[in-house]
Write a structure and sequence with these properties.
This protein has 423 residues and is mainly α. The protein has 17 helices and seven strands. The strands form three sheets. It has a three-stranded antiparallel β-sheet with strand order 1-2-7. A two-stranded antiparallel ribbon has the order 3-4. Strands 5-6 form a two-stranded antiparallel ribbon.
Length: 423
């Protein structure tokens, strides 16, 4: 796929690639057209007659790159530091500290949590190949990737996990009484130290790659993760709340993101549900996965244009995955709670701004929100269908970028992973 066609396909929403390979990201309204994923080429790539499930797609992909790629490997789990953390973590069993839920989601390698980020990085690495100038000593020829790319995949997993662990801290200064304050304080200490340990190790591994541009790129991804925690309003426990919807005529024009390592401007984001959703999850997820894919291609000696495509693929895949997670709350029995910054509710609030009064009730705590009323409003409106369209849009864009890679088993595995979360 030519660069001009890629720019045209991505004109609507998230990221553009300029002729100089600098990235320009725009966060604006819904696309006027839907992109199709049903090309004959993609149909040939997927080797299954039936839609593959997530676990099977990941399992088959892991065989392609050699072994399960989560950094939760035997080498990592058996370290003295993590053994001590696990021992202390057992003391929290039976308490309500959110660190336990985080640990459970990290260990459970199912469809409820995307444990495959390192796997995605390695699949992109193998699909693109590497420069013939790379010395043989740096190549893992059995898996078809570089040793440095494997290290980068582990760094990606460690950065993401450290961020999730740090998010599990409880605000002990909340105006509400804290249940089990001793357990909460102890859990906070474990979460803080565990997250710091992972982040410190990721920085060490990154420095060992001895590539200054790579360090700058991945450091900007860590910055984006931090900025995601300050986007929009929050309750006292730092749970995110959506911004009040603004009429279309009051929305500011969206700003451009002129460089891959520059901060994402927030002009025109607040008050627009779609823009805010994209900006929030580009910062919280897409930037890390996209920049990791781009960094993997940089390590392989590819040109900046292909590195940009790697970034595009990671961003769109992360956004498609987030839309899938947002839809899960509305595909089964009514949940007791769900994300207040998810796409279905964002679209519903845009259509019915009066529902924002329920969000206002959650200023002190999201537990005060009437989730039943919001759930009924989402189901009765078209927010779910709009979210499905949003997911299909980002799936299509990820597939468009994937088409620029050579046809191989790694690209097939990436395609199957994408198909596994198609609505």
């Amino acid at each position: 796929m030519s660069l001009s066609r890629l720019r045209s396909a991505l004109r609507c929403d998230l990221v553009k690639v300029s002729p100089s390979s600098a990235l320009v990201a725009k966060v604006w309204g819904p696309c006027v057209r839907e992109l199709s994923t049903g090309t004959s080429q993609r149909g040939a790539v997927s080797q299954h007659n039936t839609k593959p499930d997530w676990n099977r797609a990941v399992s088959e992909a892991e065989k392609i790159v050699g072994y399960p790629t989560s950094f939760l490997s035997l080498r990592w789990v058996m370290s003295d530091e993590i053994a001590n953390v696990a021992l202390h973590l057992r003391k929290l069993v039976g308490s309500n500290h959110p660190l336990l839920k985080t640990a459970k989601n990290l260990i459970y390698n199912g469809k409820n949590n995307m444990q495959a980020w390192g796997l995605i990085v390695l699949l992109v690495s193998k699909a693109a190949g590497h420069s013939p100038e790379i010395p043989d000593m740096e190549q893992d020829k059995a898996a078809g990737v570089l040793h440095s790319q494997r290290a980068l995949a582990e760094v990606t997993e460690m950065i993401r996990t450290s961020h999730l662990v740090h998010k599990g801290l409880v605000n002990m200064n909340s105006s509400r009484p804290i249940e089990e304050p001793d357990n909460m304080m102890f859990g906070n200490k474990i979460a803080l130290l565990s997250g710091d340990y992972l982040l410190a190790n990721s920085c060490t591994e990154l420095a060992n790659l001895r590539n200054q541009e790579l360090v700058e790129l991945m450091s900007s991804a860590v910055r984006d993760l931090a900025e995601a925690e300050f986007l929009g309003e929050r309750d006292e426990q730092n749970n995110p709340l959506p911004s009040r919807p603004l009429p279309v005529d009051q929305l500011e024009p969206a700003s451009d993101w002129e460089c891959l390592t520059s901060p994402l401007p927030m002009t025109g984001v607040a008050g627009c549900g779609r823009r805010e959703w994209v900006a929030r999850h580009v910062l919280a997820a897409g930037a890390l996965l996209g920049k990791s894919c781009s960094a993997a291609l940089k390590l392989a000696g590819h040109d900046p244009a292909l590195q940009s495509k790697g970034y595009l693929f990671g961003c769109h895949l992360a956004l498609a995955w987030q839309a899938f997670l947002d839809l899960e709350a509305f595909t089964g029995p009514e949940p007791t709670s769900f994300s207040l910054v998810g796409a279905p509710l964002a679209f519903t609030l845009e259509a019915r701004p009066e529902l924002y009064s329920y969000i206002e009730a959650g200023r002190k705590s999201v537990q005060d929100v009437d989730y039943h009323a919001l759930y009924e409003a989402v189901v009765a409106g078209n927010g779910i269908e709009q979210t499905k369209a949003l997911q299909r849009e980002h799936i299509s864009r990820a597939c468009d970028v994937l088409d620029s890679f050579p046809n191989c088993d790694a690209r097939t595995a990436l395609t199957n992973i994408i198909v596994a979360m198609h609505p």
